[in-house]
Amino acid sequence: MALAPNYAPLPIEIIAGDGAWVTDTSGRRYLDCLAGYSALNFGHRHPDLIAAARDQLDRLTLTSRAVDHDLLIPFADAVTALTSTEMLLPMNTGAEAVETAIKAARKWGYEARGVTEGRATVVVAESAFHGRTTTVVSMSSDPEARAGFGPFTPGFRIVPYGDADAVAAAIDETTVAVLLEPVQGEAGVVIPPEGYLARVRNLCTARNTLLILDEIQSGLGRTGTTLAQDLSGVRADLTTLGKALGGGILPVSAVVGRADVLGVLTPGTHGSTFGGNPLACAVGLAVTRLLATGVYQDRARQLAPVLAARAEQLLATGRVTAVRAIGLWLGVDVASRTGREVSERMASGGVIAKETHGRTIRLAPPLCVTEEELHLMMDTLESAVGR
Ligand SMILES: *Cc1c(COP(=O)(O)O)cnc(C)c1O
Predict the structure, then answer these.
(1) CA 374, CA 306: separation in Å to the nearest integer?
(2) Which of 69, 150, 178, 185 could serve as 123's disulfide partner, Cβ 3.0–4.6 Å?
């Protein structure tokens, strides 16, 4: 086989997608409740997004940053307006956005904070997921993500997630940033205790340390707000965006945040050949137009109680050991079967979902899902976990 074995996909071969549904080679349809790990928040082939991409394909696709193009500043303006931030630095994948945020924080620490060059530390959380590059796996606490990939990038301190005291204890004069997911997606939709983000925000402000929130999976509507951090009333100094920013069409990521922090990345210090390309900006702009209406956030907020109620019912059956729901996002810990078995049984039942970390199923249907489809998802999950 010519394909590298770094994934173990479900035994389904998809050939078409439309809204919340996909079709396989045998013509069978599935409700897509993985939604590209939230890259497909607007469903497959949203007409506005496809139209924006098509129009752009007929006009201009790539320039490189050696010259400007007509959509670059409008894209930056639209995303910063949507997220109430000051400045945007465009990249492609999520991991690159996280790398960019770390580089900006370190350079800011040396230049603005006077941290001794080469000594900067970043506080990160246990069980976090921020991507797969060598520096990003250097801050992972997941043995599978790390084993065999050292030596690792130094300068990270890992603390338990959800414990603001642990963050406080880990910050010292070398600490340039605290990097967290507002809700840990890959860990299985782990929601921190009430007040956690606000406390960490206050700590970072008091210690003149940057708060970086990775909203690559939690952001852009998933939790019922534009950003998950909106639920806690905080604004990070830097926020990473990705996944849904590309509208399910192409990789588009960005770091948004404080102008004085992103401003340290002067010409020649950082960049990307494809970052902010015209096609990416056209799709990203169309994504911001969908989110600016508030329709997707409202929909996630309106359906959230339906999802949460079904999750509580499932928990009450005793067939699962824990459920965690926020917006249109659900983590379920299964006991009687492995997560893999449950996701295979769900696929047989016509719903695509994927396990994460052995015994957890993460469900993230497209935000265009209907209430009936949400019930179908939960019915299928319920029968897949067995009795
Ligand atoms: C998916 C994800 C990433 C990495 O994004 P890629 O595009 O796969 O590099 C980073 N952070 C979070 C929170 C993610 O969910």
Answers:
(1) 8
(2) 178
- Among residues 248, 274, 292, the one where a domain terminates is 292
Report whether pLDDT(387) > 90.
no
The closest residue, in CA terms, to atom 11 on ligand 1 is 130
* CA-CA-CA-CA torsion sign (232, 120, 255, 129): negative
What is the longest distance spanned by two Cα atoms in the chain?
62
Q: What is the pTM of this model?
A: 0.98
One domain for residues 182 and 218: yes
296 lines ligand 1 (CB under 6 A): no
**Calpha distance 83→78 (Å, rounded):** 9
347, 380 contact by CB (below 8 A): no
6 is a domain residue = no
Strands 238-241 and 253-257: antiparallel
Q: Report the alpha-carbon distance of residue 143 to residue 151 in Å, rounded.
A: 14
Question: Residue 366 pLDDT more than 80?
Answer: yes
CA distances (Å), 349 to each of 27, 28, 345, 380, in order?
15, 11, 6, 6
Same domain for 222 and 168: yes
In the numeric block, the tokens 């929909």 are attached to 299
Q: Is the CB of 261 under 6 A from ligand 1?
A: no
Compute the distance between CA of residue 251 and CA of residue 275 in angstroms, rounded to an integer. 9
- CA nearest to 172, candidates 137, 208, 146, 221: 208
CB atoms within 10 A of CB 295: 13
Q: Is 246 in the pocket of ligand 1 (CB under 6 A)?
A: no
Average pLDDT over residues 209-231: 98
Question: Are the CB atoms for 385 and 334 separated by under 8 Å?
Answer: yes
Q: Which of 373, 387, 286, 292 is nearest to 342 (CA)?
A: 387
